[in-house]
Design a protein that fits this description.
The complex is a heterodimer of chains A (343) and B (396). Chain A is built from six helices and 19 strands. Chain A has three domains: 96 residues, Beta-grasp domain (Ubiquitin-like (UB roll)); 96 residues, Beta Barrel (Elongation Factor Tu (Ef-tu), domain 3), CATH 2.40.30; 125 residues, Nucleotide-binding domain of ferredoxin-NADP reductase (FNR) module (Rossmann fold). Chain A starts with 8 loop residues before the first strand and ends with a strand. In chain A, strands 11-10-13-8-9-12 form a six-stranded antiparallel β-sheet. A six-stranded parallel β-sheet of chain A has the order 17-16-15-14-18-19, sandwiched between helices. Chain A is of the alpha/beta class. Chain B is an alpha+beta fold and 396 residues long. Chain B has two domains: 99 residues, Single Sheet (N-terminal domain of TfIIb), CATH 2.20.25.10; 241 residues, Naphthalene 1,2-dioxygenase Alpha Subunit, Chain A, domain 1 (Alpha-Beta Complex), CATH 3.90.380.10. The longest helix of chain B is centred in the C-terminal third of the chain and has 40 residues. Chain B is globular, with a radius of gyration of 23 Å. The chains are: A alpha/beta (343), B alpha+beta (396). At the A-B interface, helix 5 of A face helix 7 of B.
Chain lengths: 343, 396
């Protein structure tokens, strides 16, 4: 790895909407830190290489992951030239491309707001639907997430909105329940409507783009949440709806949830085809496809070269989906992903 | 949970199926709606209409009808309030003289500021127009909706299962006449009244029924899958038909509880169907061989424009004169006015409940309301978008 102790380098940040901003990156300074220092609030969250929020496409190898820094990037992303700006140094003058418009970082900057729990429902034993009523003004884009402070602890957890910006101040989340999880314990044993809860957001660059091309959505488990928000946004936005495919899967048929909600979207939008799957299917008469939502894609034909894909679920699903979609003919640059790691 | 709560939760599961329909207070967008009869817009005339919250100016120039946003870019006044047309290919705002091209809506000049830098840069919206069968249709909705579907996809289907099929409004050799008037109710209440198999009581004593000695039942109830046919033509009309010609519907000729019997001796056949974005076809009404078309064009969330149009066959001048005589002295006064006044009355009577008392959730539907539910589901599926209110940016 080249040494980066030389003079500061100039890195151009190229946003999706064509806007460019140049920043200076000092030796041994992370690119994200440099941007924030110079007043460019790039989308980011964990600053430790794990959440992948600050992912960028490196142009001409000007930016490289810092030595001894582990990131959550998958092999396919690394070979495509993607790096995490929170964990990368500049090696020479050059540029990175950000897969979101410059406007995203100026509208709706993250802030801490107070909210009231207005409902908790259990679509299945391992998934909670949490509904909050925000007390302050806020806006977000379909696909984004907020951090929620687990009441009674100092810990924050991230959840994507399943609801629509137009339904604010209501926020809806799907929370995967895991044994020993702080939020899980709270929801299972202490959460009551009327309770106050802190929310920070909105965050994330996993947002629905303007495109009339075919859309493919792949969702695993509670990764369905931001995808629902995107589908409902498409239903209500201006212009003709694109052709869409949603492949949604859960770990088991027993814990399959939101089947009605997903099928309703297919009823409301004749342009949307829905494929449902579960890894474990015990009932031989089940209409669910056996396997992951990526397996369920099968040999789906992708005729439109401008097809865009949105993936949300656990990292192995994202990686498999990305590989499959590229093999089916989707351009790597048209695949947007959000990883869900239960904690 | 008591019975009442159980009923309420069952209702909410059903209404979830057609949730988008309940969102459509201002109507469905990206659809063809009738704006004016052709003879209501003379050469060089400008008239303003409001459809689904869109304020639209219609102008006829050199015979061709143009539809433009009826709101000057400058200070937002409706240009149709005081029509000013200075050339054949423009429309001018009466206030400061902003003058827009009819073909593209681009600002061509400003009477009071001929060298203004805005000229050529500012534009107002133009809407697609089709003038067919003596009606000016406008495609109302998003400026970026592409491609604009054909007018035929927002009209009834051609009837093919009837040896004496009624004519289609776009057929050659048809006589088309009608009226339109304002209804003080949400457009959906109007649609749902139109095809309602259970609403014959309001027509029980109508002049046209008594005078023609028609045997009209007290009501009809679906009893099999044959009762309702969902219409889903590829790239064509979407809607549903009450199949009164099958055994799917049971007609009630008598109610023994209150001792009421259907009057009339002459059996009579008519059939209703309803299509997106919200229009009705009644075959063989008001008399055999004729078709009644009704549109319930949303004006805003509390008013609709009620269009009643009759379509009859007419192959030559003599038949045209006969059709005209029949229309003027029978079909309009006894059908469109006397008979349909009762429908308008019923819709307007429903409005306060649906507007002020959560009617969409509090209504109690009964056995013959299957048709209503099927229509709501079909409408929820096949609409091309929910019209946003103008104050939410819906009519830009």
């Amino acid at each position: 790895m080249p040494d980066s102790t030389a003079a500061p380098y100039r890195i151009t940040l190229r946003f999706e909407d064509g806007v460019e901003k140049e920043i200076t990156v000092e030796p041994r300074e992370f690119v994200l830190d440099a941007a924030l220092r110079q007043g460019v609030p790039l989308v980011h969250q964990c600053r430790s290489g794990s959440c992948s929020t600050c992912i960028a496409q490196v142009v001409d190898s000007a930016v490289e992951t810092a030595p001894n820094r582990a990131t959550s990037l998958i092999a396919a992303e690394i070979s495509e030239g993607k790096r995490l700006l929170c964990s990368s140094y500049a090696l020479r003058d050059g540029a990175v491309r950000l897969a979101y418009p410059s406007t995203l970082i100026y509208e709706g900057e993250a802030k801490i707001l107070s909210a009231i729990v207005s409902g908790i429902e259990w679509p299945t034993a391992s998934v909670a639907k949490l509904t909050l009523e925000l007390e302050g003004a806020c806006s977000f884009r379909a696909g984004q997430y907020v951090r929620i402070k687990v009441p009674g602890t100092g810990e924050w957890r991230s959840y994507s909105m399943a609801s629509l910006p137009r339904d604010l101040a209501k926020l809806e989340f799907l929370v995967r329940i895991i044994d020993g999880g702080l939020m899980s314990e709270y929801l299972r044993s202490r959460c009551k409507p009327g309770e106050r809860i802190d929310v920070e957001g909105p965050m994330g660059a996993f947002v629905l783009r303007e495109s009339r091309a075919q859309h493919i959505f792949v969702a695993g488990g509670t990764g369905l949440a931001p995808i629902l928000s995107m589908l409902d946004t498409i239903r209500r936005r201006s212009g003709a709806r694109p052709k869409m495919l949603l492949s949604f899967g859960c770990a088991s048929e027993q814990n399959f949830f939101y089947r009605d909600e997903v099928e309703l979207r297919g009823w409301w939008m004749p342009q949307l085809r829905v494929i449902l799957s579960a890894d474990r299917v015990d009932d031989p008469a089940s209409s669910l496809i056996r396997g992951t939502p990526v397996d369920a894609l099968g040999d789906e034909r992708v005729d439109d070269p401008e097809t865009v894909a949105y993936l949300c679920g656990p990292p192995p699903m994202i990686e498999a989906a990305r590989r499959r979609l590229v093999a089916l003919g989707v351009k790597p640059g048209s695949i947007y992903a959000e990883r869900f790691v239960a904690s | 949970m008591d019975t009442r709560d159980k009923m309420a939760s069952g209702k909410s599961a059903a209404s979830r199926q057609y949730a988008p329909y309940l969102e459509a207070d201002w109507g469905f967008k990206n659809a063809w709606y009738p704006a004016l009869f052709s003879d209501e817009l003379k050469e060089n005339e400008v008239k303003g209409v409001t459809m689904a919250g869109h304020e639209i100016a219609l102008r006829r120039a050199k015979g061709k009808v143009h539809a433009l946003q009826d709101r000057c870019a400058h200070r937002g006044v409706r240009m149709s309030l005081k029509p000013t047309c200075l050339t054949d290919d423009t429309i001018t705002c009466w206030y400061h003289g902003f003058t827009y091209g009819l073909a593209d809506g681009v600002l061509k000049t400003i009477v009071a500021s001929p060298d203004d830098p805005l000229i050529g840069k500012v534009r107002i919206r133009i809407y697609p127009v089709e003038e067919r069968a003596g009606i000016i249709f406008v495609f109302v909705g998003d400026a970026d909706y592409e491609p604009v579907p054909p007018l035929t996809s927002d009209l009834p289907i051609n009837i093919t299962d009837d040896a004496n099929a009624v004519p289609h409004i776009l057929d050659e050799q048809v006589y088309v006449r009608g009226i339109h008037r304002t209804g003080d109710s949400n457009w959906r209440l109007a649609v749902e009244n139109g095809f309602d198999p259970g609403h014959l009581l309001i027509h029980w004593d109508n002049v046209i029924v008594a005078a023609t000695d028609r045997r009209m039942g007290l009501g009809a109830r679906p009893i099999s899958e044959d009762a309702i046919r969902v219409i889903d033509e590829p790239n064509g009309p979407k809607g549903m038909m009450n199949m009164y010609n099958t055994r799917g519907y049971k007609f009630f000729m008598e109610n023994t509880v209150i001792g009421m019997k259907a009057r009339g001796k002459k059996p009579y056949y008519a059939r209703t169907s309803v299509f997106l974005p919200g229009l009705l076809l009644v075959e063989h009404w008001p008399i055999p061989g004729w078709a009644q078309y009704e549109w319930y064009v949303p004006t805003d969330d509390k008013h609709h424009e009620y269009w009643e149009v009759l379509v009859g066959r007419c192959r030559n001048e003599e038949e045209r004169r006969e059709a005209e005589y029949l229309y003027d002295h029978f079909l309009e006064p006894l059908g469109l006015r006397d008979f349909n006044n009762n429908d308008l009355f019923a819709r307007e009577a429903m409005q306060p409940f649906y507007e002020k008392h959560d009617g969409w959730n509090a209504e109690t539907l009964c056995a013959f309301d299957d048709a209503t539910i099927v229509w709501r589901k079909v409408a929820a599926r096949f609409n091309r978008g929910i019209q946003e209110p103008p104050h939410a940016g819906g009519a830009r």
